[in-house]
Amino acid sequence: MSQAAPPDPLARELFEQIASWPIYDPHSHIDAHRPASRNLDEVLGYHYYTELAHSAGMPAAEVDPGLPPQQRARNLARHLHRIDNTVQYSWLLEIARTFFGFQGDRIDADSIDDLYRLADHSAAGAGEAWDRSVWETTNLEAVFLTNEFDDPLEGWDTSKYVPCLRTDDLVLKLHEPRTIQRLQASTNVDVGDVKSLRLAIAALFEYFVERGARACAISLPPDFVPRRATPVASQNSVRRAITHMDLRPDEHEEVRTLVFWTLAELCAEWNLPFDLMIGPIRNVYPGGVAGGRDLFDRRVSLHDYAVLFTHFPGVSFPVSTLSPDAGAELVAFSWIFPNVVPNGHWWYSNVPAFIAADLKARLQAVPKTKLVGYYSDAYKLEFVLPKFNMYRRLLAEFLAEDCVRGRGWSADRALELARLVLLENPRRLFQRPGGGAG
Amino acid sequence: MSQAAPPDPLARELFEQIASWPIYDPHSHIDAHRPASRNLDEVLGYHYYTELAHSAGMPAAEVDPGLPPQQRARNLARHLHRIDNTVQYSWLLEIARTFFGFQGDRIDADSIDDLYRLADHSAAGAGEAWDRSVWETTNLEAVFLTNEFDDPLEGWDTSKYVPCLRTDDLVLKLHEPRTIQRLQASTNVDVGDVKSLRLAIAALFEYFVERGARACAISLPPDFVPRRATPVASQNSVRRAITHMDLRPDEHEEVRTLVFWTLAELCAEWNLPFDLMIGPIRNVYPGGVAGGRDLFDRRVSLHDYAVLFTHFPGVSFPVSTLSPDAGAELVAFSWIFPNVVPNGHWWYSNVPAFIAADLKARLQAVPKTKLVGYYSDAYKLEFVLPKFNMYRRLLAEFLAEDCVRGRGWSADRALELARLVLLENPRRLFQRPGGGAG
Amino acid sequence: MSQAAPPDPLARELFEQIASWPIYDPHSHIDAHRPASRNLDEVLGYHYYTELAHSAGMPAAEVDPGLPPQQRARNLARHLHRIDNTVQYSWLLEIARTFFGFQGDRIDADSIDDLYRLADHSAAGAGEAWDRSVWETTNLEAVFLTNEFDDPLEGWDTSKYVPCLRTDDLVLKLHEPRTIQRLQASTNVDVGDVKSLRLAIAALFEYFVERGARACAISLPPDFVPRRATPVASQNSVRRAITHMDLRPDEHEEVRTLVFWTLAELCAEWNLPFDLMIGPIRNVYPGGVAGGRDLFDRRVSLHDYAVLFTHFPGVSFPVSTLSPDAGAELVAFSWIFPNVVPNGHWWYSNVPAFIAADLKARLQAVPKTKLVGYYSDAYKLEFVLPKFNMYRRLLAEFLAEDCVRGRGWSADRALELARLVLLENPRRLFQRPGGGAG
Ligand SMILES: [Zn+2]
Ligand SMILES: [Zn+2]
Ligand SMILES: [Zn+2]
């Protein structure tokens, strides 16, 4: 039985059932060409471990990309005891035990070499077998990817590794030379003005949808405010961005507004959900380790997005908010807007204390058919299971306490709710455009 | 025993006691001329059901006011299974069972016609008997109304259905022609400037207090900031508003500032509590169903109101905040300002997860004599009981866990605290001006 | 056994262990010359009691400083029953029982004279013995003080009563004549410009560190935003401040920015932690009792401090935030920035409901070696024990539920974590600069 099983007998019973289901994971950063790890360094390289160890005093140089992988793992291991209280550490331990056959209680300087050996799948041909093995142990049904807009999307089964069009660069970095180059290279559209820009982005949608993409996604900083695009008025700013001229702040704003609105229009056209991940500010802490430099400003409100939700009633917006204290607002907006869907528990909010509170409010106040319980956000396949198990446990505890004991529901009724939230809702909301569930 | 009773035996025991008390409900939208429902459509028409069903996919047309009532009920019923996880659905089920003798477990397309029949009190003369029956089953002592300023307040027992002067229109819509017309018609004051405006509003206070009003109330948007009125300087803006001329934003602000401050002065004069409901923004989602279009911006702070609380030490301000994450700030302001009273759990914050957290902090950190536990905010009398039972249960659970088990209190001491919060405080705080408790 | 012991048997067992340890208290307002109370009035004079009683209706005049102490105590006692639900009242009861031998259940008008007599240590020589007795009963290892910058720091054992340089006046009130006078008097530096100002402040650091200071501390209003100092550009503003000329808002800002940044530089130089207490606005409610006039604006974000944390990687910043809803952001910033340490639970956030939520998130997501569990913020020594016991209980409850039952830890492992958070981390983080732990 999973170490994630809750102590309460009723919750444990529900958890066992839920843990026997397949996992449908609607957002990750898995590389479809190399989904599972080849060695422990690829597991320990997850930013949570490097950033928490760094936060606890490890110099960034100890996990420098230039070091040999096992050395990086050893270096990190010497700091893991300082973060063995964290939920992130518990994922690591569950991975080590479930996937690597680790028997110990602690991953530290003493056990790291053993574990490194157990986790090694770097031999020729071993990797693909390991990918399949992790997929099966995880009982994974589908996992969504995060694909750059110029990803050719070739070489994997897109019904299992589902493409997702990530659009941060288009909206936030259109003025950077590489963005336009990549856009032109991937679409063969000569981008010079608002009209050709739109044609190019439309070509991306066509390409992605044809290759099985089932969502468009973006992460947006707290100061971004969606506004209806004004293509004619924005023509000049867009031209300046495309030709890499310096932009005034208001011109920048015009460009990102226009591109963002265009994306929403194309989501409507192609019937793609538009995942909004609201809140991060990039590189707040430039001294941090790779992947551990972003934070947020908690002064953010979904009210800024009301105009977007209103204008695109036909687009489904699965929304994740970054600041844990913004979770209650998402409940209210999901309760009113038919097209706003509370989506998982993201990054700095992906901590049991915050998940439990958000999950409770959502399950008490948002229509059950709109809840997308969880996504892994994983970079390596091994993380899908322990992260989902963390959520499954919190869900089982809520169902036991609030629904079965609290409202007198049968266990079956509670499990029906869990099944909706974990499987049926995401399958339906992210189904193949124009077709049945994937 | 109520289905709302908590599973923990000690909490259940406390709940049973508390549930046997009368209910004193200091804020509702009950129509004193027609307090209980005449048919099920009037129950299902509560905005929670239409907005949640709409959020879950029901087209607004299915509950169009032009449809026959039973058709609307049937239409809505086909969508209720999608929201049967919500606390709002649980109120409905409790109403069906407690008041209508419904025996089923689910209100859906199959059971709706039966329930509609059970809930029918539309026969001539049946309505009044039904009003009395619901009042008695609820064990209601008094329920506060929400009366437009030109309500004649005639035709009911104002010691049971207590008038309350609602002032949103005066503050926020003074510039609309109908507001001034209504004000002149109801006061016989010829309103032309700051002075006559104040005379007219004073006349409203006199009228309302004479007819038993025990509170003045208003809901205010997040961008409203109370400021000391400047009658002379604002003269011009007020004149322009009264004569329906276009106002600049700063003139608008001057007008609403002046009227709001005038209301506070008159509350001081007439010894009326001034209920502040802080946060809603109207019509954020124009595509929503009636009553389901308002939301908020969570970036709001009671600090904006400090100048008001300071200036009117003699006015009691029962305060409700809309954004769930603003609840902790209300605890701090209630703990410092003698005239700030945390008032119930409002609308988007009226969800068990949020109530439980707020209730706990208030009962741990605000003087017990200042807590107004709950109000129903109901539009129909049937909702008072299930909504209060939801609160009573959370209160009983807090008392069992935190006070009896946690601090070693006797059950009697815990019940004394409950009695204060539910009955004695609201009776005292909202007593008839100049008289004893109502 | 302490009345603070939790009801759950496992949590109680952990609590008993934890309660047997010494207390290391890294922030208080204790007067080292007169640490414990001499009479009950000095206990009841703690702002929590006067402000809560005032909030519940007591006129400020009843605790006027001009009244005889016993009269003040009697006056206050007549209002205590209205706040006997609060956690602050429970500290009082624990003090009365633990230190004064009080046997009753309530402190009120009936029992106040008895208690006053029991708490009297005003006889010649009795005070010092009482100080030692409270110290020993509390099992106190060290308590940090809050010393004005011109405190001579003489006359006590600074390894027990640890000096801490409080700098609010320097940053926020440099323009007030008394500040410069005091600065010149205490440093013998003739302060006339940026350079001499810095010399004077550097002299304070030298003086404080030589006399055992182990932290610099400041409380900052929500509108303060740290910025890199610009000594040359700020020269004029600083000169105007020093000569008490009127300052424009931007000049004010320049002055406080410069002084604050200088403090951070000197903390780096002297290897002193810089305690940041973020959020209070002074005198929000001028009508309040002494110490009960400050509040906050919840619209505040640590993002404003990112530039500071980034610029001074070598300075440890123990951070307390005032608005309870800002706690989750502190978790995220502590998880990323190596030099940001979540520090205790402060003032309006120091309520079990808020502590329990914050403690849980911190222990789940911040490296365990960075957590400073609690400080008393006490003005009199008697408060250290009940306040720490409140925290110890919440910690024991978390460990029992989340770690032992929830994760299968042994009790010993849970206690190791508690020991880090309560003792080893603060000892290490606040150790004597250049030396071993104090
Ligand atoms: Zn992601
Ligand atoms: Zn209302
Ligand atoms: Zn302090």
From TrEMBL, chains A, B, C:
GO MF: glucuronate isomerase activity; hydrolase activity
Sorted UniProt keywords: Hydrolase
Pfam families: UxaC
One BP term from GO: glucuronate catabolic process
Record Gene3D superfamilies: Metal-dependent hydrolases, uronate isomerase, domain 2, chain A
SUPFAM superfamilies tied to this protein: Metallo-dependent hydrolases (SSF51556)
InterPro entries: Metal_Hydrolase, Uronate_isomerase
Protein name: Amidohydrolase
